[in-house]
Write a structure and sequence with these properties.
heterodimer; A: mainly alpha; B: two-stranded antiparallel sheet; branched-chain amino acid transmembrane transporter activity (chain B)
Amino acid sequence: MEFGPHLMLAALEGAVTAAVLALMAAGLSLVFGVMRVVNVAHGEFYMLGAVLAFVVAGMAGGGAPGFVAALVAVPLIVAALAVAADRAVLRRLSYDPERTIVATIGILYILQQLALMGYGPDARPVAPPFNHRIALPWIDWGAGGPVLTWPWGLSITSYKLFVIGAAATVLAGLWLLMTRTRIGLVMRATQLDRETAQTFGIPVGRVYALVFGLGAGLAALAGVLIVPIQQAHYLMGGDALLLSFIVVIIGGLGSLPGTLIAAVLIGLSDGIISVFFSPTLAKIIATLLVALVLVFRPQGLMGKPAR
Amino acid sequence: MNARILALHGGLLALLLVLHFVLPVYHHGNLARIMVLACYAIGYNLLFGYTGLLSLGHAMFFAAGMYGMGMPFHHLGLGAELAFLAGIGTAGALALVVGLLALRTLGVAFMIVTLMFSQAFYLMILLAARWTRGDEGLVLAGADRVLFGLDLTDPDIRYLLALGLFALCLSAALWLVRRPFGRVLVAIRENPERAELLGYDIFRHKLAAVVVSGMFSGAAGAAYGLMFGYVGASFAEVHFSIFPLLWVLLGGAGTVIGPFFGVLFMFYLIDISSGLTPAYMLIAGVALVLLTLFAPQGLAGEVRRRWLRWLP
């Protein structure tokens, strides 16, 4: 393949990564924004989404109905689990930022190791509900002007397009929820000032549980969507967590539009750098970049400086 | 120094020396490892327990000590004594650079920055697989592992050297936290604004704490590599940054003697549970959640709160 089509292929793969990453990072960012805690177990909710998708799809008989069942049920199961974790652990710590991180590290290991015990150490796939190969054209500059060619290997599957579309739809829905509904208003009020919200009769405890569940549900949804492309494995949460951290920090902690822009930026560059350079080098550059962003510009690219 | 403090810590060291002669082989080997890891925990505690800075990236200092020792030892044929010092020096230099950058942040950001630096360090070890042999790691030749004429492949010598290193770290930590320097660190933990108002340069004190803590961790890493003959990337993974946090939380943050008991307890807990299930890290997870919920003071912290108010 020529350089141009190769780059386009890398960008398309990157767009799929970006879509999944945006969902996950939106969940992490929401939890940080409203509750002011960092949920280190977020990657494990993503892993649970993928692993449970395998289980639920299997129980529902596999194929397209199995996948749809997983898509609906799994985020709800994981969200319920997260709400339980919030009630049982985080609330008792009064959401103290540092102790919450330590406790969510504990939850991370508990979920990961339970998945190892229940699901085993193997990576297993879920069949996509549909999977047509769509060849893509490329414009070459021939002798007589632009010519449309169909380079071998330049293609995307219908399922990958569906993932991008689904992520965009869910994120648009999340934005509408936050800006246009009463519950979104309540969440934003809690985010702005917890005490004042409480005095105005907002049940802050229940809002926190809801937000934590919603964040985990978004991660689980990302996990379900990725399973037909990547296999489900009990250790898949680590890298996903690291990437979403990177996205949330670059985008500005707690800023949803910033998170989205950063997800597209990181997803695309991850896809492109991984194709042309060593993926390890790409990760090193990304992690160091994030650490330096936090050191020199803690509010991120889009976030507002702390008051 | 206070007599009962001396008696308590000296008593622990004497007990460990007696155990050398009575323990069965398996536990004798375990305890040697525990003592080296306890040095790592003591170093971590200086930063977390006394200064109040929670780092999630200490594995990079442990690994810097290990690789700083192992690389010149393996590739350049440097003697064990100099290689050990090189390990501590590498860890100290890395801690200085990381401290200068990471200490510009506070709280949660500090935790994430240290986590990210540590992850980058781990990935660099994998990237330089040509020299570090990546995941596989380096096996140090037994014939060269001789420290001042003492053969490190002999379990008895290993135990006594581990005890010597542990005694050194324990007394250094005890001395450090009872000096004015240690008192200032506690003041910074309790109330940074007031410490600054009293005229202390908190940035320089914190930086010194990071470097000292990094050097303790590096010494433990270098000793671990030398004694057990293996230098591997797994010691730079995230798990290995979480472990010292767990040990210190369990043993008692901000106590000199606590980290040892944290390591001892956790080591055997994992040793026993890994015989039952491959998912032994589950124990670590449950322990972390229960500790943050019910005993944020840890073992020695509880003892201090209830009975021994003088425990340093």
